[in-house]
Specification:
With 495 residues, the protein is of the alpha/beta class. The protein has one domain: Rossmann fold, CATH 3.40.50.1820. Helix content is 38%, strand content 16%. Helix 3 packs parallel to helix 18. The chain is globular. The two termini are 40 Å apart.
Amino acid sequence: MRASRPARRLALRLAVPLAALGLVGSPALAAAPDRIVLAECRLKAPGGGNSVPARCGHLEVPENPAEPAGRRIALAVAVVSALDARSRLPPLFVVAGGPGQSAADFYAGYAQAFAPTARSRAIVLVDQRGTGGSNALACVFPDDFDVAAPPPEEIRALSAKCRAGLTGRPEYYTSSVAVRDLEAVRVALGYPRIALYGVSYGTRVVQHYVRRYGAHAAAVVLDGVMQPDRILGPETPLDAERALDLMFARCAATPTCDGAFPDLKARFRALLADLALHPKSVEVPDPSTGVGQKVVFDREQFAGAVRLLNYYSVTTALLPFFIDHAAKGNVAPMAAELLLLSAHLDEQLAYGMNAAVSCAEDVPGYGSADRARLAGTYLGTGQLDELAVLCEGWPKGVVDADLFTPLHARVPALLLSGEADPVTPPASAARAALGFSDAMHVVVPGQGHGQLGVGCAPYLVARFLLAGTTHGLDASCLATVTPDPFVLGPTGPAP
């Protein structure tokens, strides 16, 4: 079953500051830590494809850190050995995004991008509690694409159903508890120091790990960076507007795109106004079953689809074609792509864990949103309002009092941004870079969210980790990266 629109909008926020329930600070780990027994296994990317050999095991930890003798959960841990068996370099811990994505799933999908790093150091994958093999907090919702604008009571019912089906207490599935798990795995595996890579929401977890356990961090790579002193949500519509404007400007400056889709920005605004009054529906084949699926685009649904497609350069290249067709009354191309991307999200994200993090860490701060500014964006305040309703019944989660304070770290840091990232723009990484005494921030031209697989980025990351400093690091190879060319029709981009 595919997750509902409210659930998807929650997931697409990534992670959407309060002292909260539980302990604050970093309590010492047990004097005699458990060991992890590893056995040969293979990691498979979602959707199939090649698998990756690894050694897998589990580490049991308390669900509630304040009750070490209480209920325990098992963390899924995988270690991908370095190609150089003699290497003694600190391993790289990979922290996935979402929130709600399994680290093992993410790595399996990006193994080629990690290959230069894996030559000389082991890769350690800990499925964050509530994801993948670590007591996943999954929620299943009925298909409801035919519902254009779910009322608040429906969102509350979906939220209650989600909470009732969870396999754990969501208040203990937050970033503040996750960093304790990473440290427990480090200790159990016997590593004196580790390097860390975090993508998207994972950059929040990595930065908080550095805040708590920086003495054990050799270096960090932050990709699609959430600045540590800002909640995610109140600025998101503004960031999305900026990224979409970059797309419109690039299309207008590209003769083939401007010729095929003239006045695209003005037509997009007119289309939003029309959809607010006259929603459009279409039936397209479900990508999983082939069965016809009804999709209704009202203004809000269409805006959410545009934001999703504007995440990555490869899908941004489709947007002018989709907007042009929708303005002419044909929403089928965008609907088909939306179903495909949504199915991909459903396969990868644990929506219950996503809500556990967002409702504990970000949504409590939504009262600070400048609603007048947001109302002028194409996204408006709809997603913030839906999330606020969805989170009404969730328990207050464990959130360390300093989770949103600036960092002051001596750990070397490489920060990667896409120029056109609609959710973690370069300004966010620039702010985060101020928290590291040894930092390099690289902005990749024309790219969206997440840079690990772009151009020479895999080799840049490997060189940085090997050097253990940004001093003398040459990132000029990323300056020549160009965005995917715009798709002009069914046959693709211009020759």
